[in-house]
Specification:
four-stranded antiparallel beta sheet; 4 strands; 3 helices
Length: 131
């Protein structure tokens, strides 16, 4: 994963220097212990026809050998699109890039930081709608 200079502009898009914005949060995150277990991620969209669609990533946690449960949802709120398929495509690309980082020697933390730096935020009260 590419190291961000302390005086570089923060990748979160705030316009602040990294050292005055996300550096401490990311250092603390790197030191934190991630939840144990197996997880899988699915791309999707968050929103509706009248409000637009945001790229989203749903994380599932394995609860037994053949059973998965929705664990949390990540949404990219700064990207609002008229077409649901466009939002899903962006989420698919972002997941693929994050997996690529992990596959090429990155850690689980690098996977999560990549999504965070690309604007994904956790949604606490999400509702899953199956088509």
């Amino acid at each position: 994963m590419t190291k961000i200079g302390r005086n570089s502009q923060c990748p979160c898009g705030s316009g602040k220097k990294y050292k005055h914005c996300c550096e401490k949060t990311e250092i603390d995150f790197q030191k934190s212990k991630l939840p144990s277990g197996r997880f899988r991620y699915e791309s999707g969209s968050y929103g509706s026809n009248d409000r637009g669609y945001m790229p989203s990533i749903l994380c599932y946690k394995e609860v037994s050998e053949d059973s998965w449960k929705e664990h949390f949802c990540l949404v990219k709120p700064d990207v609002i699109l008229n077409e649901e398929d466009e939002a899903v495509t962006i989420a698919e690309q972002d997941i693929a890039t994050a997996y690529n980082l992990k596959t090429n020697g990155g850690s689980v933390h690098d996977f999560a930081l990549h999504l965070r730096r690309n604007g994904y935020k956790k949604v606490d009260d999400f509702r899953l709608i199956k088509n």
